[in-house]
Amino acid sequence: MDLSALKSILVTGSPLPDATWDWVYESVSDTVRLGSDSGGTDVTSAFIGTNPYQPVYKGELMGPYLGVDAQSWDREGRRVYDQVGELVITRPMPSMPVFFWDDPDGSRYHAAYFDMFPGVWRQGDWVTQLSEGPFVVHGRSDATINRGGIRMGSADLTHVVDQVDGVAASMVIGAELADGDYYMPLFVVPQPGTRLTQELEERIVRAIREKISPRYVPDEIIEAPAVPRTRTGKLLEIPVKRLFQGADPSSVNRATAEDAEVLDWYAEAARKYTSGA
Prior knowledge:
Helix content: 10-25%
Oligomer: single chain
Largest sheet: 4 strands, antiparallel
Strand order of the largest sheet: 6-7-8-9
Shape: globular
Strand content: 15-25%
């Protein structure tokens, strides 16, 4: 195809793998301006992305958009450079939602954005802000499922799965991998005295297709002995996600787990996955 008139390409939805950056300049055009943007449907806008006055560097988003005070913070709420942190927006944007539908006391709205840093919007992305200004987006820092740029809470999916006859409990994670792939396994705990059969898998997939969307059918359904929870009953989705992204099991705090042996089972499952065993 004649792409001589092509001047720029904008991409969004998820972090663009380095290999795709290389492919664009090798196979599409060596003069095109390739830019990556990161935003959200919830704000109908972007937070960080391209700037026509700055040079293009592989894997980098050039900086915040106009009117966006985007920063990278560590877990203690300190601004950090040249290390992975949470993407936060420290000042309000005109397009930010101010409440959720059917959330009269605002609890769901607060939990979605302000639970970690009171009064400061946390987008739920892992980013590195370079000391020169640009950002690198690594993927989701929370339990949100991101299929092709369409985000959904993991609880919305497991709520449907848990209603399938034969399922005692379930947990789903969405792991962004180093090569740009996305792995979305669904862990299912069958009801006592039963196993995860092909027939049960088919019913789970059918429920997801019909009640949510075919987009969210998992890459794999795995039978698990239990779902990992904290001592206060919260699912340990984020630590498990990090394990499947290659984190060292020693980085997971086993003391917070209700049953450390269950967490060990997931660590071993992640080890087998990452090693290709």
